[in-house]
C-alpha cells in the first residue's frame, strides 16, 4: 500500500512542544486545566482535546542519566487494528483514506464500545469525549494534506524532528539518517520498518529512534 508517512527523528527533538501547540491551534482545540505532576509533560496525557503530546521520560543516573522526549500521536497503521475492531461492530465509523492511508475517526464512533477500540490500539491512542461519547485522535491533518500542505505539527517543527511525505521517501530518509547517526550513536535504531513492509498489524506511520 502506498501513502503518506511521518518520520520522527528523536535525535533532533528538543521537546519545544511547538508541534503540540500547532496541533491545538489548527484543530482549534481548547487548553486543559492541568497541575504540576513533577514533569514537564503537560498535560499529563493525551485526551479528547489533546491529540498530540510530547512525552518526557528520565532514565538512568549519574553519567548514564538521559532525558528522553517523544512526540506522541496516532501512528496511522497500514492495517489499523482500531478499524478492524470498529468494523466488527459498525462499519463506517472508522475510515481509512485510500490516497494517504490516514485513519479517521468519524462522529459515528460514539456508537462504538470504547474499550474495544481502545483495547485494539497497541499505542494507547484513542480517547473519548465524556459528554458525546465520540472518540478522537490525530487525523493526519487530512484537510491540510489534501490541500497540498504539511500537517500542522510537521510544518511548525524547527529542528527537523518531524517529517512527513510519501512513505518510500520517509523510509529512505530514515535509513540515511540512521547510517549517519550510527557513527556517533551506535545504539540508534530505526523501528517499525519491517512491519511496514510485511504489512503486519503494527504501526509504521511514525518511526522512532532509540538512542
Ligand atoms: S497531524 Fe495534525 S492532527 Fe495529527 S498530531 Fe499533527 S497537527 Fe495534530
Ligand atoms: S495507532 Fe492506534 S488509533 Fe492509530 S491507527 Fe493504529 S491502532 Fe488506530
- In order across it, which strands form the biggest sheet? 1-8
Kindly report how far apart the N and C termini lie: 30 Å
Percentage of residues assigned to helices = 25-40%
Shape by Cα distribution: globular
If helices are DSSP runs of H or I spanning 4 or more residues, what is the number of helices?
7
Give a verbal description of the structure:
There is one protein chain. By secondary structure, this protein is α+β, with helices and mostly antiparallel strands. It has helices spanning 18-27, 81-87, 114-120, 142-146, 152-156, 167-181, 193-198; strands at 4-8, 53-59, 66-72, 94-96, 103-105, 127-128, 135-136, 162-166. The strands form four sheets. A two-stranded antiparallel ribbon has the order 1-8. A two-stranded antiparallel sheet has the order 2-3. Strands 4-5 form a two-stranded antiparallel ribbon. Strand 2 (53-59) and strand 3 form a beta hairpin. Helix 2 (81-87) runs antiparallel to helix 3. The longest helix has 15 residues, at 167-181. The chain is globular and about 50 Å long. It starts with a strand and ends in a 13-residue tail after the last helix. The site of one iron/sulfur cluster has 14 residues, from helix 1 and helix 5.
Question: Layout of helices and strands, plus pairs?
Answer:
Layout: E1 4-8, H1 18-27, E2 53-59, E3 66-72, H2 81-87, E4 94-96, E5 103-105, H3 114-120, E6 127-128, E7 135-136, H4 142-146, H5 152-156, E8 162-166, H6 167-181, H7 193-198
Amino acid at each position: 500500500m502506498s501513502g503518506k508517512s511521518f518520520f520522527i527523528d528523536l535525535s533532533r527533538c528538543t521537546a519545544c512542544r511547538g508541534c503540540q501547540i500547532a496541533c491545538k491551534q489548527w484543530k482549534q482545540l481548547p487548553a486543559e486545566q492541568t497541575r504540576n505532576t513533577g514533569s514537564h509533560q503537560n498535560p499529563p496525557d493525551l485526551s479528547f482535546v489533546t491529540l498530540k503530546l510530547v512525552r518526557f521520560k528520565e532514565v538512568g543516573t549519574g553519567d548514564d542519566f538521559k532525558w528522553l522526549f517523544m512526540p506522541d500521536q496516532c501512528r496511522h497503521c497500514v492495517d489499523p487494528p482500531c478499524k478492524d475492531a470498529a468494523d466488527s461492530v459498525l462499519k463506517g465509523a472508522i475510515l481509512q483514506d485510500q490516497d494517504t492511508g490516514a485513519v479517521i475517526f468519524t462522529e459515528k464512533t460514539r456508537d462504538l464500545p470504547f474499550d474495544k477500540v481502545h483495547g485494539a490500539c497497541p499505542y494507547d491512542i484513542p480517547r473519548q469525549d465524556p459528554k458525546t461519547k465520540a472518540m478522537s485522535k490525530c487525523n493526519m491533518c487530512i484537510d491540510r494534506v489534501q490541500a497540498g500542505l504539511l500537517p500542522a505539527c510537521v510544518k511548525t517543527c524547527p529542528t527537523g524532528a518531524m517529517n512527513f511525505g510519501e512513505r518510500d521517501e520517509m523510509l529512505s530518509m530514515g535509513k540515511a539518517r540512521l547510517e549517519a547517526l550510527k557513527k556517533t550513536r551506535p545504539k540508534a535504531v530505526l523501528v517499525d520498518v519491517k512491519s511496514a513492509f510485511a504489512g503486519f498489524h503494527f504501526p509504521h506511520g511514525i518511526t522512532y529512534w532509540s538512542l
